[in-house]
Each structure stands twice: as C-alpha cells, then as structure tokens.
Amino acid sequence: MIYAPHLPRLGTFEAWRTAARALASNDIPADQVEWMMEGGQTGLFAQDGAALPAPRDISVPSGFVQLARQVCASRAEGAHELLYRVLLRCRGNAALLSNRADPDIARLEELAKNIRRDMHKMKAFVRFRDVSKPGANRRQFLSWFEPDHRIEELIGGFFQRRFGDMDWVIVTPEVTMRFEGGDLSFEAVASERLDLSDETEELWKTYYANIFNPARLKIKAMQSEMPKKYWKNLPEADLIPGLIANAEARVAQMQAHAPTLPPLRAERILDRLPDRDAARDIHACKRCPLSAAATQAVGGEGPQDAMIMVVGEQPGDTEDLSGRPFVGPAGQLFDRLAEEAGFDRAAAYVTNAVKHFKFQPRGKRRIHQNPNTSEIEACRVWLTAEIDAVQPALLIALGGSAAQALTGDGSRITARRGRVEKGLDGRPVLVTIHPSAILRAGPSAGLEEHLRADLRRATEMCAALQAAGVDGVNR
Known about the structure:
Elements: E1 2-3, E2 6-7, H1 12-25, E3 36-37, E4 46-47, H2 64-71, H3 79-90, H4 103-125, E5 129-130, E6 140-144, H5 152-162, E7 167-171, E8 175-180, E9 183-188, H6 200-211, H7 219-225, H8 240-245, H9 247-256, H10 264-271, H11 276-283, H12 290-293, E10 308-312, H13 317-322, H14 329-341, E11 349-352, E12 359-362, E13 365-368, H15 373-390, E14 394-398, H16 399-407, H17 413-416, E15 420-422, E16 428-432, H18 435-441, H19 447-467
C-alpha cells in the first residue's frame, strides 16, 4: 500500500507532523509514502484518501522539530520525503542529526539554510506603502513580496512584533498575511503582483540618488545582499543601473575637485589640534587609498604641551564617524585602565599611527583590518607633525602598528611589552599592548593588568623627568 498524505498550504508543518507521527509509529517505510501538497496530483499507485494508521508514541532527538518546521516550508523537490526518511532513521539514534557528513543530514541543513536566507531577504526587502484612511484609529500599510519558499507562517511573528503599532497586509502570490487590531491571520489565496507606486517614491528616489556613494560601490557585495529578483519591489531599483554605470566617472569627478569646506563639527575638531594647518592637510590627504573609503581623517587630541603622547593603531568605526580618537570600545577600555592605574588621561595627547579607518564591509558592518607597512609609512608625515608640535617627553606605542611607526619595528609586541626603546627621532618609546587585543582575548587572558602596569610605569617615568627638571624634548 502506498500512502499519500495531502499537506495544506497553511498549516503544512502541523499536517506533516501529524501524518509522519502516525506513519513512523507504525513503521511504514519511506518508500511507501508519497507526500503531496494540497491540489497536487496523486501518483498512480498511491491510495488517495486512504486512512492513516492510528498514531502511537514516538520520540525524536532534540532539534528535529525545529529543523522539520523550517524544511516543511521548502519548495525543493523531495523535501517532505527526505524529512520522513530522516525521522525514521533518527529514532533511537540521537547522534544522527549532529553528523553533518551524512548525506541526508547535509541536505536537510542545506534546505533549512535556504529557508533562513529567504526569511532574511523578506525582512530586508518588504516595503510598506501607507494606505491609511482618513479618521482611522491605526495606521494602515500594504506590501507585496514574492518569497522563494512557503515562509509566510514562519516569518509572520517577526512582522507582528516589529510593526505591532500599525495595521498591515503583506500579500504574496499564494498567501495574504493580515495584522489588524492586534490579531495576525493568514489566508491561502492566489494574488497577482500589486501596483504599490505612490507620490512618495519620487522623493525617496531623489534622496537615494543623493546619498549613493560611488566611491564605496561594491557590485558583487550589493548583488549578494540585494539579488536582482528583489529589485522590482524597490523604488530605487530603477536608478541602480545608471548609478552603477556612472560610478567610475563620478569618483573621478569627486577626486578632481578640491575638498569642500568642513562642517562645523569638523571645525571644532580642528580647534583641538595643535596645528590647524596640518589638520586641514590631513582632511585633504590622498597619500594612500584608505582616504577613499573612510568617512574622514581623525587627528590627535589633547593638550599642546602634553608630556606623554599615546599612539594607537588607527581610528575604529566609532572614531571614523565621530572624528575623535579613542572614543570607541578600545578607547573606553583604555580610559578605564588609565584611571585604575593612576594615569592622567586628560593630560596626555592621544592619536593614531594611521589617520583613516581601514575596514572590510560585511553586510551592514564594517570589520576592522590592520594597516599595512605602506599605509603606516604614508601616514608617518602626520604623526611626525603632531610629535613636532607637542614635543612629548615620552611616547607610548599601543600595539604593533604604533610600534612600527615610532620605532620602525612592529613585531613581537608581547615579548617587548613594558620595555622602553629608542624611537626613530630619539625619544623614549614605551611599547605595550593595544586595548583592542585585550577585548579580543577576553578578561580570562589577564592582559588588562599588563596594560595597567605599563601605564603606571609611564606615570612614574614622567614624574621622574619632572623632578629632574625635564618637561619635554627639544623644547
């Protein structure tokens, strides 16, 4: 006998679970079951409408139910058959699901990954249009989306939580999701693509065209995150081919023109620097490619007569956006350790060996990358100008990039940590670890005490120099 359970478009997983429990608990082999979506044609030998055997208790490994819930939404051929076959195999074999070398398990994980990717794309590319009626108590919105798989029931809770303050309808080719008055409902109904154009689209397209940065264009990354199949649902998609085609010419045009005047917040940053002319040159710097992608150059900050100059690696994401050094997570950790060590952070001049943020785009995040030797050398002119202007008595090199810039050697920082070396210009350089290394290693590595000890030593060295009547070099 061939059983042919029919699975409805809504409640697919629940129907599959009920049928699978009845079949598996009665040891019905996988080759005697033909799973059908509602409305599909039954096979020649299948017993259409044949009653399923009475279910008995059955246990499955932890994690199978969640995996099955996702895979049941797949449109891939044989997905439900594969699920049932794995269900039969994993009874009494709890370790099966963790065996990624097993072909059935590898295929299940691949199908589940495709479902999660489809859900992510729906979260990213659903665009609501306001269809509120005059006098309505709640805002009303409408959207159209074409998922690759049957994910509506899996994703409905996300939109309910995210947009719980308004009524909305999301229409797909097979299902309409409604959230009205706080209630979420699903209706299996065929729908044609909706025309959702409105008067705000032209305003949005104008805004998008003006914020598009051709210097940061990464076509492969953009198509990976926003595949072309979704472009027809996005108002700005009409602009993208032209923006891509003209990107190279626009970058060349931007490079050919002189820098514009900095905004007022940049003026305030420049006022904190010891040499305003040098600071202006930093913001126009094109000595290495880092300036093309970074938001702005980030110079140093601190008293113009500081006895200690602290040199880090480069601005991070927070520093790049704010225009100030040592304000991100690593800078905040440095401030805390300095306070605990009795190091007067406000009396020190802080800067970086490289003035532009070097990063690798990854989705919406910008992942820090270490500057290379050529980038450190290209930025040395700005660091030298800061040292000449401040004339510190002691330099502190935080990490390999700073040690490379100040001593010419950026290697073996752990072994050199705590040592005072002679810098390239003859000044003493205290080599120590960078706070970001502490953040990466975690508190269990015990690196915080190393940096605290080095900051205490720097404080003691400056006190000794002041007692000897030395408050700087070549002053």
